[in-house]
Amino acid sequence: MRPSTTLSLSCILPLLLGPVQAQEPGQRWGSSNSSGYISKYATALRSAGLNGFADTLTKINGTAPATALFSQLASGRNFTVFAPDDAAIRRIPAAVSQNRTLLAEYISYHFVDGDFTNRSDTTSSGGRGPGASQTETATAAQATAALLGRRVVLRDEDWCGGGGGGSNNSSGPAPNPPPFAGIWPNVTLGRTLLNASALVALGAHKSQVLAWTRVSPDGNITILNQAADTTVGNATRWRNLSINPINNTLIPPGNLTTALTAIKASALQGVLGGVQIPSARGVNTPAVLALQRARGITVFVPANDAFTDAVNGSLQGLQGNASALTALVQNHYINGTTLYSTQLADNTTAVSAAGEPLHFVTNATGTFVAGANSTTARVVHPDVLLDNGVAHIIDQVLFAAESDPAQAASAYESATSAAAAYSTTETGPIGVGPGGARPTPLTSTEPGGGGGGGGGGMTTVTVQPSYR
Ligand SMILES: *[C@@H]1O[C@H](CO)[C@@H](O)[C@H](O)[C@H]1NC(C)=O
Ligand SMILES: *[C@@H]1O[C@H](CO)[C@@H](O)[C@H](O)[C@H]1NC(C)=O
Ligand SMILES: *[C@@H]1O[C@H](CO)[C@@H](O)[C@H](O)[C@H]1NC(C)=O
Ligand SMILES: *[C@@H]1O[C@H](CO)[C@@H](O)[C@H](O)[C@H]1NC(C)=O
Ligand SMILES: *[C@@H]1O[C@H](CO)[C@@H](O)[C@H](O)[C@H]1NC(C)=O
Ligand SMILES: *[C@@H]1O[C@H](CO)[C@@H](O)[C@H](O)[C@H]1NC(C)=O
Ligand SMILES: *[C@@H]1O[C@H](CO)[C@@H](O)[C@H](O)[C@H]1NC(C)=O
Ligand SMILES: *[C@@H]1O[C@H](CO)[C@@H](O)[C@H](O)[C@H]1NC(C)=O
Ligand SMILES: *[C@@H]1O[C@H](CO)[C@@H](O)[C@H](O)[C@H]1NC(C)=O
Ligand SMILES: *[C@@H]1O[C@H](CO)[C@@H](O)[C@H](O)[C@H]1NC(C)=O
Ligand SMILES: *[C@@H]1O[C@H](CO)[C@@H](O)[C@H](O)[C@H]1NC(C)=O
Ligand SMILES: *[C@@H]1O[C@H](CO)[C@@H](O)[C@H](O)[C@H]1NC(C)=O
What we know:
With 468 residues, the protein is α+β, with helices and mostly antiparallel strands. Helix content is 29%, strand content 18%. The two termini are 45 Å apart. Strands 13-12-18-17-16-15-14 form a seven-stranded mixed β-sheet. A five-stranded mixed β-sheet has the order 2-1-9-8-3. The chain has helices spanning 9-17, 19-22, 24-28, 34-47, 51-60, 64-73, 86-90, 94-97, 100-108, 140-148, 256-262, 266-273, 287-293, 309-318, 322-330, 405-421, and strands spanning 79-84, 111-113, 175-176, 188-191, 209-214, 221-223, 230-231, 235-238, 241-246, 276-278, 284-286, 297-302, 333-335, 348-351, 357-363, 366-370, 376-386, 389-394. 48% of the residues are buried. A hairpin with a 5-residue loop joins strand 10 and strand 11. It has two domains: 9-246, FAS1 domain; 256-436, Roll (FAS1 domain). Bound molecules: 2-acetamido-2-deoxy-beta-D-glucopyranose (12 copies). Residues 118-139, 159-179, 426-468 are annotated as: Disordered. Pfam families: Fasciclin (PF02469). Keywords: Signal. It comes from Hypholoma sublateritium (strain FD-334 SS-4).
């Protein structure tokens, strides 16, 4: 007979002994010995029934992105893993699975930096307990109290049980609370380990993010921006990894064109097709290409319904006025800065690429953005991820043809220098501060703009997503 809840010494010690000892796994399983760590991890995955994911780790072993990934995992820091089940692994497109380097890059997108465990969720089953609100954050003290409140029995050193699931297999996985997840349209975002330059062009060379949510308070966690519905299963914990099975393999975000097609924003695509954006050197570039070359961008995409007869009439009135049309497009994006929905703090302002204010309001009705010509639009679908930033779908055209090039240049400059100074990586939900308050007021805008960079030529292999 085994007790229903067991915890290993390696899970308890860091909690009891504090931060210095919490680093101990890093020394014990350090990067100099990452292959030993990965072999044990693969074995652990197999005992959790994730054979395909374990095989994939072995398959990518030796490629540059896998070496980087494995040494991070073996560092002892916490990571949240979204591990595709066997059927999902079998569905990886040949164009990805046959290129081990590309496959390793895709696999890196399944690892999120940090421990997202929602310790206040007391259900060890479906990951949908009453504590699943994103406004709850457990402190280390609360976590310790919660763990010590349970019956603690030392056993297999690697599996750390967090719940009352009752595994009878001493080497098998123990249940763990699910990750934090906002309730739609609130989204939880985590920074992944994918930073391959062919797939990601965020400011400050940041890694790509992953977005997830719960469609209803008692629903399963769903990964956003994926072509197929991707559901997160019950979590387990192994050493420093919280392992969350998913029934689909994740595809990193593609370019703006791919995203606009996926969300069927054909009206904006039509407008972009007729507009040129002047570059720093005074050369005009088609808007779509200019947007795709930016490093770090936030695009407010009016839904097709926003193009009413009145709006189309006003647009008609601007035909022949190229600079007004350019300003109108530029008033729909921020150049050099990526602001996810959780960072659109109430009563804050950012500067559009036209140099005009974009004012954000977040209240009980939702998140709103007001443009220079006092149109207020509601964000109806946040966080459509792009390889170089993020898009938010809004319900109105921000009809503003004003521009202030000096303001635009200075906002871009400060985004670029903020990016240069950027050094830390988020290890918790992006835009959610200690205590779970959402969103954290922006002290400055999130660093976005990187240096020049060749831009263009993204080599994303994607299936056509139909984002939810
Ligand atoms: C990865 O390759 C190294 C060196 O070739 C080997 O020692 C290790 O066992 C391999 N790891 C896995 C998980 O296959
Ligand atoms: C990793 O997560 C565990 C459990 O969630 C926590 O107790 C520990 O302090 C974290 N370790 C580090 C190095 O952050
Ligand atoms: C494999 O993928 C890598 C990384 O995306 C890419 O650089 C390389 O050209 C690809 N190799 C082939 C043969 O397509
Ligand atoms: C989690 O496990 C419980 C049984 O322990 C099951 O009822 C539930 O459907 C599982 N949730 C998911 C998302 O697989
Ligand atoms: C949650 O996922 C489980 C396992 O895939 C499934 O059986 C269940 O129907 C899902 N629940 C909801 C509310 O979608
Ligand atoms: C994943 O599971 C959910 C819930 O059971 C289901 O609705 C969805 O279609 C599944 N996705 C795939 C790709 O099988
Ligand atoms: C962003 O600003 C830089 C510097 O002014 C400019 O060269 C570039 O064209 C702008 N990009 C977009 C998409 O507006
Ligand atoms: C918004 O911020 C401004 C300037 O900081 C302040 O004067 C104003 O009272 C705030 N409005 C609301 C509704 O909080
Ligand atoms: C939230 O802000 C929007 C835009 O300013 C406003 O229209 C709406 O009435 C506000 N809702 C509440 C509940 O204050
Ligand atoms: C403000 O918006 C209206 C339509 O709502 C438009 O007719 C007018 O030209 C806009 N003014 C400027 C300066 O963009
Ligand atoms: C989303 O977050 C806001 C701000 O924290 C909160 O007021 C709102 O209730 C949340 N909405 C849902 C559906 O959880
Ligand atoms: C966007 O990405 C798709 C898929 O990789 C690619 O086929 C397309 O050429 C890209 N579009 C542009 C304008 O770069």
